[in-house]
Design brief:
Order of helices and strands: HHHHEHEHEEHEHEHHH
Structural class: alpha/beta
Low-confidence stretches: 373-383, 410-416
Radius of gyration: 21 Å
Mean pLDDT: 90
Strand order of the largest sheet: 1-6-5-2-3-4
Helix content: 25-40%
Number of strands: 6
């Protein structure tokens, strides 16, 4: 599966992430599952049937016709969202993994569920956008809403989480909070200003439930961490969510091919750590990130944060593809000076953002009350047998696993 040799999206970053996680032995401290591909029926819980049919049938040799008036390609396919071999399989796999993560939460099998292949937040109901084809985040949240009255979605990607915001624009059962670079005319997707807070009509349930933190170039570690805490804390205390979905796009790191912030890996991870401290059900997803070696480091580190283990700064000597992390071969390279942008976010500007968020929260008169007297049937009932088999496998290996957990995160070979 390949977007193309010159395309910035490199799914190989997932392979690198997996290799680092395994090298540290972190897999011994968590349950690891092989997810099933999402079905067309599951995807049409949000996406339109004709769009899913198109993704299922299109192949690279198909000649796509542009609209003669607008010049648009069908379903917004094109340079950003190319057609490639295995496209539908790719979409169904990452979407299925996010759906399974949601089911682990709703079945009380996990407190935290991770899918680094997910987090593709730009996809719309009937079109691709920004390297995203299927919006796995929306599908996962819809699954959570079968059992959870309120879900908070937090987006750390350098690009605005427009697809998720749009999907839940008119409901009070999902609050979206996106921290991103904002420049309406010059930075994709050009949405997510501070005044984009949901429907303008106060009688619409979604009013004031879409919150945005529009940032300028070059924000640094200390400013970002403090800002994150200052906006997330009142959101959680006011909205009172019962589950959180956290998108951890790695393009907000310093030196990213498409990014413009100055964040280091520990600072990005500090946001995951802070979110975790609220002890709510949590789904952690990937997203953007276009310098694969740094994205892999980030997601491996944030895996350690999720499982609560310390990891040695030096990558284990037996890590596959270790040469890709030369010359330092560390989990925490200095990124804040790599292609550094001047920090254009003044203290006053950041204080004003926090005040704006808190002002919007004043309109929320307590968390919405939702009576879940009837739980809609889970469209993934076909997975129940697989779930039982996984449960049996997990119980069988639990006894031996705890001993290995003590060695997770150490440098070199993990303990046996």
């Amino acid at each position: 599966m390949h977007f193309g040799p010159k395309h910035p999206m490199k799914p190989w970053r997932l392979t690198l992430t997996n290799k680092i996680v395994l090298a540290y032995g972190m897999h011994e401290a968590m349950d690891v599952y092989m997810s099933r591909a999402a079905t067309s029926q599951e995807m049409t819980e949000y996406h339109k049937q004709d769009y899913i049919d198109f993704l299922q049938s299109v192949i690279p040799t198909h000649r796509l016709e542009q609209d003669p008036v607008t010049g648009a390609w069908p379903y917004n396919m094109g340079d950003d969202c190319p057609v490639f071999d295995g496209l539908f399989n790719y979409c169904s796999l990452y979407a299925g993994a996010s759906l399974d993560a949601a089911r682990k939460i709703t079945n009380n099998q996990s407190d935290i569920a991770i899918n680094w292949s997910g987090g593709l937040h730009h996809a719309k109901k009937a079109e691709a956008s920004g390297f995203c084809y299927i919006n796995d985040i929306v599908l996962a949240i819809l699954q959570l809403l079968l059992y959870h009255p309120r879900v908070l979605y937090i987006d750390l990607d350098v690009h605005h989480g427009d697809g998720v915001e749009q999907a839940f624009w008119s409901t009070d059962r999902v609050m979206t909070l996106s921290l991103h670079k904002y420049d309406k005319m010059n930075y994709f997707p050009g949405t997510g200003g501070s005044d984009d807070t949901g429907p303008k009509s106060s009688v619409n349930p979604g009013a004031h439930h879409s919150l945005n933190v529009p940032l300028q170039d070059g924000i640094d570690d200390a400013s970002y961490i403090q800002l994150f805490k200052d906006v997330v804390d009142p959101c959680i205390k006011t909205y009172n969510p019962t589950a959180i979905v956290l998108q951890c796009g790695g393009d907000s790191l310093g030196g990213d091919r498409l990014g413009c912030f100055n964040l280091n890996i520990r600072a990005h991870g500090a946001c995951v750590e802070y979110t975790k401290k609220f002890n709510l059900h949590l789904i952690v997803l990937g997203g953007g990130g276009y310098t694969p070696r740094n994205v892999a480091r980030l997601w491996a580190y944030e895996t350690s944060v999720c499982i609560g283990t310390e990891v040695h700064p030096s990558l284990p000597t037996h890590t596959p593809f270790l040469e890709h992390f030369a010359p330092d071969r560390t989990l925490f390279p200095e990124l804040s000076h790599t292609g550094r942008y001047d920090n254009k976010n003044s203290e006053k500007y950041l204080r004003d953002i926090v005040m704006s968020i808190r002002e919007q929260l004043r309109y929320i008169q307590g968390s919405p009350s939702v009576q879940l007297q009837h739980i809609p049937p889970d469209i993934g009932a076909v997975r129940e047998e697989v779930e039982r088999e996984m449960q049996e496998e997990r119980e069988a290996r639990d006894a031996g696993r705890r001993k290995k957990e003590r060695g997770a995160g150490v440098r070199g070979e993990y303990a046996h």
